[in-house]
Structure formats: C-alpha cells, structure tokens
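Quick one, T. Sequence first:
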Amino acid sequence: MNPIEKPQYATPANAPLWAMDLYYKFLNCGFKLPVSAGTASGVKPVPLGYDRVYVKLSGPFSYDGWFRALKAGRSFATNGPILFLTVNGNEPGGSIVFPATKERPAGRLKVHAEVTSVGDLERLEIIWKGQVVKTVEASSTAQHLSLDFEVDAQSSGWFAARAFERPTETVRFAHTSPVYVKVGGTSGVVAEDAKYLLGLIEQQIKFCETSHFRSEADRQAMLAFFKKAEAVYTRLAVAH
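Structure tokens:
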C-alpha cells in the first residue's frame, strides 16, 4: 500500500531507501521504533543470517535482557557493515533533553559515527529527521569510514546513521536505531509525514469497506482497528 513515489527507488541499489523513508515517517510522528532485521530465509533466496540485528547489552547475556535492549533501541541492523553512532556520548536508544529557551540555541550536539566492513565502503551518512545532513564518501577502496561534526540543538527530533558498501550484485548496508533529542516543549512531529501515513490508513479503510470478509463482525473489527489509527494520525497531522 506504500507507493514507490521516487523513480530512483525502483532500482535494486536504491530499494532500501524506499523502506527507510517510510521508517523515517513513523519516527517523525514521535514513535520510538528501534531498527531490527530478519532474513526471511525460505521466503526469499537468501541464506540464514544474511540480514541481522546487533544489540548492546548492559549486563550478562540473557533472552529477556537481549529483547529488552532491542526494545530500548540499543541496536543496529546490517547485512554487512558494522556501524556505530553517538550523539553527545549517547548511543542508539538514548535521549538528550534540553530545557526550553527563546534567546539562543538550547545547546550543542556532537555527533560521531564510524563504520567498518570487509567489503569496499561507498559512504557513511547521518540522518536528522529523515534528511541526510552529513555524508563522508570513500575516495578509493576503504573498509573504514568515520565522521564528526557539531550542530546547535534547535528543535526536537532524532539522529540515526546509515552506511553503504559499493553496490555489486546485491546491496549491503547498515542502519542504527535513533538517538532522540528533546528541546523544550517542541514535539518534533512532522505534520506532512503524519498526513502521508493518514492517507495510507484511509486506503486501508476503503479496502476493508469493499473487500470480502468471513463475516460482517470481522469487517467491523478491522474497521475499528483502522479508525483508531486514523484518529491518532489526524491528531498528529495538525501537530506543531
């Protein structure tokens, strides 16, 4: 139900960007969603473990501890590169809070990212609320890239890092969960992204209204589910 609106996303090398853009829209609605991964081995022609997620634990390994850390967003997903990000020393899943201020920027944000891979890297990028704000490109064969920069904290939002190897017969890349920034009372919600997702929900409602269900009760249950989501995105679409 999510159309490929940009022609470049229809190519194998850029197909991941299409999925990333949708993910960014959810983040821009204020939902704290960690990155994860799965191979779909047996459904897609890829080996087990081709796509995977790494999670940082604060204590000994355990099943519950691993999933709690994943839910907290201390993760990066990859099918190749190993990727790290910090913002003011905070790793993915962390939050930075600044008090409200009118006369000057709330504070400075120091961003550091680095990536290592056995394959030839193409670029390392920093994303702020869905937009690439910093890029370092490999000038030649390189298996390691890093970048550092500083920026004023002006509004609430999130940072994430992503990195790509040079494309071959497949696309190898990595993506971190976000580091969140809260500035005063600003919500950080991007109303246009909420409107986009609202449009997808409205499509689902129309689909349920015209599709075959085993019973009318089943139809009404699905409609109630999507109507609840519609109310959420309608509220977010007018957020400031």
